[in-house]
Write a structure and sequence with these properties.
The chain is an alpha/beta fold. It has three domains: 178 residues, Alpha-D-Glucose-1,6-Bisphosphate, subunit A, domain 3 (Alpha-D-Glucose-1,6-Bisphosphate, Chain A, domain 3); 223 residues, Alpha-D-Glucose-1,6-Bisphosphate, Chain A, domain 3 (3-Layer(aba) Sandwich), CATH 3.40.120; 133 residues, TATA-Binding Protein, CATH 3.30.310. It has 18 helices and 27 strands. The structure holds 1,6-di-O-phosphono-alpha-D-glucopyranose (G16).
């Protein structure tokens, strides 16, 4: 074991989902080491513990894996279970932690952010329940980074991460496992694989865009090998260190190849994409885009059609900026609906306490209590199961859903890479005026309520403040503004827009048209275009 003297490095504060920085920052001498040692220290050390380790295959992941293995060995860990080739999708890592009863795990990914020598890298710690570290733990890690003065790292040759089985690193066992098999087996327990096989055998056509990221091997194994989808169903199926130059964020802007195919002539019946680390999903039908908030609501309403959820749902949960469409489903079912801050970590307590079964976010994340992360391929398989069980198309399912529950028109407008001071000033000025807004009129609409969202966790009574500015109108239409906690360049302003139409008229409008009054209200209240000088958002979901 070698003890290396170090000094604190500023800025190692985990964001919405772990610590994300530009690769040159993360790969600078001591940067990763400081953060990993601070993580181990904040957990009370890792002596005798079992950890899971893997990532999404992005640039620097293999080097980082070797460094972390040597640090875990020097810190006295008993065993590290690592995916072959240092690969593990985020949901597969969550499953492996739970399956093997590990004490926790480190996931090397900057999720949907681009990868490469000049792009993004990230590290996050997941707890023994398989879920992201809660705020109390990430704050303890950050506190430790500010006083750290040494890290431990074994001097040893690199481990062969291509060879399955046990190896030794000092006294620690490194167990290299197939990253796909256990996860694929879990999916077989939840969904009606024979029915899905029959659907594909009957000519059902699908396109899955894995965006040169980690879901490629998982999707090929499950969709093409186990379910018999046509070879080539999965495209961009090989994880590449720079994602082949793709921006692996499954939304209409970045998954534009898939969008073009699904909106074009002779489109497949079903389309889906996932992100860098496999926890996000975008769902499409032929000529039809499903907004993530609607996807969550449709999945909650129909989950009982899949064997894993045949007993019904205990409750649902959504992040605050996600539309209230799923709340309407929960009300009809008579089950609990929870509203949490942005960040999957906030669902962990509710899932562990059996207060919800399915949860989701507008940021293309959906999942259930089968793991403690959002899960892209799980959402794809649940949609497929529902399509197989109902015999309906994606467009028919959506239309039926809106006819039953009404439609929560929804969109998110992102303004990327704003100067940090400008973004903070915009938010600060609006925050200062929130108290004056209730009762005020904007473009003929009356504001009913306005606040800075705070979450009171019903399980552990922790309070999370300043989670987004909400302005709610008399008809329950809503605008929400918050700054992203996952970007690595300047500030990203997210503007969330929602308007409810009960129907039966007006359910098939273009969302941007339907939301035009809300878009105008944002400009009147916050002056986004005027203050940023931008002519429009960089990303519209
Ligand atoms: C992460 C979190 C999500 C969150 C998303 C966007 O996703 O796990 O819970 O909704 O970031 O966060 P923000 O709006 O702060 O950028 P991922 O897929 O990046 O891990």
């Amino acid at each position: 074991m070698t003890r290396h003297a170090t000094t604190p490095i500023p800025g190692q504060k985990p964001g919405t989902s772990g610590l994300r920085k530009k690769t040159p920052v993360f790969s600078a001498p001591g940067y990763l080491e400081n953060f990993v040692q601070a993580t181990f220290d904040a957990l009370g050390g890792v002596t005798g513990k079992t950890l899971v380790l893997g990532g999404d295959g992005r640039y620097f992941g293999d080097t980082a894996t070797q460094i972390i293995l040597k640090m875990a060995a020097a810190n006295g860990a008993a065993r590290v279970i690592v995916g072959q080739g240092a690969w593990l999708s985020t949901p597969a890592a969550s499953h492996l932690i739970r399956l093997r009863g590990a004490d926790g795990g480190l996931i090397l990914s900057a999720s949907h952010n681009p990868g490469g020598p000049e792009e993004d890298f990230g590290v996050k710690y997941n707890m023994g329940n398989g879920g992201p570290a809660p705020e109390a733990v990430t704050e303890a890690i950050y506190a430790r980074t500010q006083v750290i003065d040494f890290y431990l790292k074994l001097e040893a040759p690199d481990v062969d991460l291509g060879a399955l089985g046990d190896q030794h690193l000092g006294d620690m066992v490194v167990e290299v496992v197939d990253p796909v098999a256990d996860y694929a087996d879990l999916m077989e327990t939840l969904f009606d694989f024979p029915a899905l096989k029959a659907m594909f055998a009957g000519g059902f056509r699908m396109r899955m865009d894995s965006m040169n990221a980690i879901t490629g091997p998982y999707a090929v194994e499950i969709l093409e090998k186990r379910l018999g989808a046509a070879p080539g169903t999965v495209v961009h199926a090989t994880p590449l260190p720079d994602f082949g130059g793709m921006h692996p964020d499954p939304n209409p802007t970045w998954a534009h190849e898939l969008m073009a195919e699904m909106m074009g002539a002779n489109a497949p019946d079903f389309g889906a994409a996932s992100d860098g680390d496999g926890d996000r999903n975008m769902i499409l039908g032929a000529g039809c885009y499903v907004s993530p908030s609607d996807s969550l609501a449709v999945l909650a309403a129909n989950a009982h059609l899949a064997p894993g959820y045949a007993g019904g749902l205990k409750g649902v949960a959504r992040s605050m900026p996600t539309s209230a469409a799923v709340d309407r489903v929960a009300a009809a079912m008579g089950i609990e609906a929870h509203e949490t801050p942005t960040g999957w970590k906030f669902f962990g307590n509710l899932l562990d306490a059996g207060r919800c079964t399915i949860c989701g976010e507008e940021s293309f994340g959906t999942g259930s209590d089968h793991v403690r992360e959002k899960d892209g391929l799980w959402a794809v398989l649940l949609w497929l199961n529902i399509l197989a069980a109902t015999g309906k198309s994606v467009a028919e399912l959506l239309a039926d859903h809106w006819a039953t529950y009404g439609r929560n028109y929804y969109s998110r407008h992102d303004y990327d890479a704003l100067p940090v001071d400008q973004a903070n000033a915009l938010m600060g000025d609006l925050r200062a005026r929130l108290g004056d807004l209730p009762g005020a009129e904007v473009n003929g609409m009356t504001i009913r309520a306005a606040d800075d969202f705070a979450y009171h966790d019903p399980i552990d009574a922790s309070v999370s403040k300043s989670q987004g500015l909400r302005i709610i109108f008399a008809d329950d239409s809503r605008i929400v503004l918050r700054l992203s906690g996952t970007g690595t360049e300047g500030a990203t302003l997210r503007v969330y827009l929602e308007r409810y139409v009960a129907g039966p008229e007006g359910l098939a409008e273009d969302p941007q048209q339907a939301l035009a009054p809300m878009i105008a209200a944002v400009e009147a209240l916050a002056g986004v275009a005027a203050r940023t000088g931008r002519s429009g958002p960089d990303v519209i979901t």
